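Fill in residues.
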């Protein structure tokens, strides 16, 4: 009665499949000897993996049967029977997630026999599949517990750190980019949950008062050693995950809120072991990585504060913090806001590292003096004394004094009121032009159709009387916009037409309350940012947002 040969064959194989499943189910229900159960299970798995029947129940039903058998834990208490059972049922999980009973059984094997060869041979593909395909561990906590115990079993083997490194490398893949976007978030979720559990167990252990003092002290010492090994195991996963360039920005974003318990942040061994991870993130050249060491929002501390020399858990005399500071100052945080926050909260750390001849700390102190962020004379003298205490500091302070002298000459009254640079002018041309003569009266500057970039902002902020700035069709970007918004408060007309600025830089214009005309034609302006900008710039009379999202 079948319409074609394929349908006829599927009917035939479905009858054979149902007959065999019925047979295996009855035999396995009646059997009590492990060797008989293992033999029948092997036949069941071989039949399920070789049948031509194409239906999802081909593997689902055998997995249900195996899960029912795993409830009887006494049958699989020996290492030999447990290893043989895992070897038999592993093919069923090539394309299917393990059930809670299976995960519990696998976890028990990892805890009881962590050095078993089956852990690396048979359980690794199962852990890989969970990390690649799991969507939400809150709905499948049994899988998370299994992966935690599996990682801990890997670490307990000989050369455990090398084994962990190979495991992280295998889940990432051989290429420069991991093809599975869920792997890293899942791996981080597993390790974070394990670290939380680790410190929760420590707190419970500290509250135990039932045992006598001698036994209690001995037990606590043993438990403490176990907890330290477990903690080091999961920190090692973070350490090797941070080595991959494609993972580092995502890892930085996941770690920015400092998702660890307060006990961990006060635990010196954890902070010391975790330091290389944050140093790699904090010194990464990409803004998407190193910016994540700062606080996720105002009023909350970030990793930049955790590794500050004044922090009680700082163990490297501020070297990590100094490297982070250098990266931030040379990229996206060379601005008044960052330096003012640094002055308020971490000025002592800057002074300490400057005394120890750290170049980034000395540069930060010079910028505080140059931009007049220090109001009290005593503090100014303290900064100057600190800079003059080392040879490199004296050089930096001498260069600052020279810049200040040039700045006073530059800002002397006189010079032209209007200035237009020819096309093809570069950042070097602007610096060369402003290095001679006085421009204290300059109010109108046109750099339209030149080759200037955000780097010229360091020259533009030296023009205190500037009211009109035309940057049409230049490569002036967000970094330059952030800088001029903090210094050129007299600016009334700004033309950014056809520049690569985006919401990140445009939002900073809200501090330029004297703006009357603003041209954002053909920029990456969003409608939401434009609405916020209009609310914060009451003096704005004319604006051009054609060919943007806000148009």
């Amino acid at each position: 009665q079948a319409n074609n040969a394929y349908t006829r064959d599927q009917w035939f194989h479905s009858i054979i499949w149902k007959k065999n499943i019925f047979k295996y189910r009855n035999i396995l229900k009646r059997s009590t000897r492990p060797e008989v159960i293992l033999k029948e299970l092997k036949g069941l798995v071989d039949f399920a993996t070789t049948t031509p029947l194409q239906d999802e129940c081909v593997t689902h039903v055998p997995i249900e049967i195996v899960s029912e058998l795993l409830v009887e834990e006494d049958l699989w208490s020996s290492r030999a029977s447990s290893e043989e059972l895992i070897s038999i049922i592993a093919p069923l999980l090539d394309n299917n997630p393990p059930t809670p009973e299976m995960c519990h059984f696998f976890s028990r094997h990892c805890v009881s026999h962590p050095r078993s060869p089956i852990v690396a041979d048979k359980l690794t593909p199962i852990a890989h599949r969970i990390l690649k395909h799991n969507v939400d561990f809150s709905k499948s906590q049994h899988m998370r517990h299994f992966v935690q115990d599996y990682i801990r079993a890997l670490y307990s083997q000989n050369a455990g750190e090398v084994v962990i490194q190979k495991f992280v490398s295998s889940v990432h893949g051989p290429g420069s980019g991991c093809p599975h976007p869920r792997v890293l978030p899942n791996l981080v979720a597993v390790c974070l949950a394990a670290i939380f559990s680790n410190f929760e167990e420590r707190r419970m252990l500290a509250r135990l008062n039932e045992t006598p003092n001698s036994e209690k002290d001995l037990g606590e010492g043993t438990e403490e050693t176990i907890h330290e090994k477990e903690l080091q195991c999961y920190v090692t996963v973070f350490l090797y995950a941070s080595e991959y360039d494609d993972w580092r920005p995502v890892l930085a974003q996941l770690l920015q809120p400092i998702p660890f318990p307060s006990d961990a942040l006060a635990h010196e061994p954890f902070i010391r072991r975790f330091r290389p991870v944050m140093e790699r993130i904090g010194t990464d050249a990409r803004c998407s990585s190193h910016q994540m060491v700062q606080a996720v929002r105002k009023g909350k501390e970030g990793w930049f504060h955790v590794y500050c020399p004044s922090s009680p858990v700082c163990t490297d005399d501020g070297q990590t913090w100094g490297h982070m500071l250098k990266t931030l100052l040379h990229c996206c945080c060379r601005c008044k806001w960052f330096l003012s926050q640094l002055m308020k909260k971490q000025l002592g750390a800057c002074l300490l590292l400057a005394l120890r001849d750290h170049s980034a700390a000395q540069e930060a102190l010079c910028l505080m003096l140059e931009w007049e962020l220090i109001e009290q004379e005593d503090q100014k003298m303290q900064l100057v004394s600190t800079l003059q205490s080392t040879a490199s500091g004296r050089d930096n302070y001498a260069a600052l004094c020279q810049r200040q002298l040039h700045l006073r000459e530059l800002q002397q009254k006189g010079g032209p009121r209007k200035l237009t640079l020819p096309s093809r002018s570069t950042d070097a041309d602007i610096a060369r032009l402003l290095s001679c003569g006085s421009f204290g009266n300059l109010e109108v500057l046109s750099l339209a159709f030149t080759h200037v970039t955000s780097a010229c902002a360091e020259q533009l902020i030296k023009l205190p009387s500037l009211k009109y700035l035309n940057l049409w069709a230049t490569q002036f970007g967000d970094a330059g916009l952030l800088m001029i918004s903090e210094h050129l408060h007299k600016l009334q007309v700004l033309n950014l037409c056809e520049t690569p600025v985006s919401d990140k830089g445009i939002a900073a214009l809200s501090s330029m309350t004297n703006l009357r005309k603003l041209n954002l034609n053909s920029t990456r302006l969003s409608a939401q940012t434009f609405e916020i900008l209009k609310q914060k710039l009451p003096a704005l009379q004319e604006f051009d947002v054609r060919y943007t999202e806000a148009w």
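The CA atoms of residues 169 and 240 lie 8 Å apart.
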